[in-house]
Meiotic recombination protein DMC1 homolog (Gossypium tomentosum), 240 residues
Amino acid sequence: RKSVIRITTGSQALAELLGGGIETSAITEAFGEFRSGKTQLAHTLCVSTQLPANMRGGNGKVAYIDTEGTFRPDRIIPIAERFGMDPAAVLDNIVYARGYTYEHQYNLLLGLAAKMSGEQFRLLIVDSVIALFRVDFTGRGELAERQQKLAQMLSRLTKIAEEFNVAVYMTNQVIADPGGGVFISDPKKPAGGHVLAHAATIRLMFRKGKGEQRVCKVFDAPNLPEAEHVFQITPRGIAD
Ligand code: ADP
Ligand code: MG
């Protein structure tokens, strides 16, 4: 592997969990219920990736594939200010694309990979990696085809991560009971099954705590202990 960089998340607690930050040349999967902070962490990473190395950044650009329409450029401004960066410059360095079908999502990846060979990118966000597959393959009979297409997409993500020394951050929502907040599906088995679980280098489970508190737990990481820590979602991004 190329020299791995660990990109800060804005939270010391998360840094401890991750051995410093989100790793380049690797895929980090964040899974958890709705509103657990997966997209908020993506927003903070959009900024921290652009920080210089001496501020535990990646000194690179960001590619963002948004399949749910939840990216908010306005949220980037206070986060950039917190880190002492020029918000307009930070926004300019985020290459944003909205994905509408799984095929479109795959083609966006190919286009971004072409860009990455010319400019230094350090982060690729796919939020969410699976939502469009759920929409485009609904029937039971289509499961095998869905898993095959998903595997193809994930292998492309792995290739991009390694070829360009980019951190891939992908999210995966777990369905929770709208009434009680109880998981219908096993939280250890989010949508996508083994195909998705095996593609990720590091898997993080997010859940809600009190108020703006969120809990992040490490799953299946080859070189990290299975620990959990509390972080906060603030107007200026992820923090302790
Ligand atoms: P998901 O895991 O579904 O992607 P999000 O990352 O979108 O969840 O987190 C949504 C939560 O983030 C909201 O419930 C809210 O508590 C918090 N949040 C969003 N914007 C702000 C903000 N500007 N300041 C503080 N908290 C915020
Ligand atoms: Mg989200």
About this structure: Confidence is low (pLDDT under 50) at residues 177-185. The chain has eight helices and eleven strands. The first strand starts at residue 6 and ends at 7. The pocket of magnesium ion (ligand 2) is lined by residues 38-39, 70, 127 (CB under 6 Å).
